[in-house]
Amino acid sequence: MPPPAYTEVDESRARPPKYTAVAKGQFDPRSLTDFQLDELTHRLIGRITRLLRTELRLDRERIGKLRDPRR
């Protein structure tokens, strides 16, 4: 089966979107307080840490080393 015919890329789709100002009354991440930033960071780190631990455990299972010899 031959490959599909070449079509030109729409330039407006190829470029990333430009920055647009936040309308009044809408969420602006730059206006977060220190407490809100700390809470957001805590929530993100918790999720990322859980995903990393799961991935590392799955890797150990794949290679057959479920126990960590350092402990």
Helicity range = 40-55%
The first-to-last residue Cα distance is 56 Å
| Class by alpha and beta content | mainly alpha
Number of E-type strands = 0
Q: Specify Rg, calculated over alpha carbons.
A: 23 Å
Please mark out the parts with pLDDT under 50 across 5 or more consecutive residues, or reply none: none
Mean pLDDT: 77
Major sheet: size, sense and barrel closure? Answer: none
Beta-strand share of residues: under 5%
Total helical segments = 2
Globally, the shape reads: flat
Q: SSE order, as H and E?
A: HH
What distinguishing features does this structure have?
single chain, 71 residues, mainly alpha, 2 helices, 48% helix, 0% strand
If you had to describe this structure to a student in words, what would you say it looks like?
This protein has 71 residues and is mainly α. Helix content is 48%, strand content 0%. It is built from 2 helices and no strands. It has helices spanning 11-14, 34-63. It starts with 10 loop residues before the first helix and ends in an 8-residue tail after the last helix. 0% of the residues are buried. The mean pLDDT is 77.
What are the SSEs and their pairings?
Layout: H1 11-14, H2 34-63
Task: Briefly characterize the structure.
By secondary structure, this protein is an all-alpha fold. Helix content is 48%, strand content 0%.
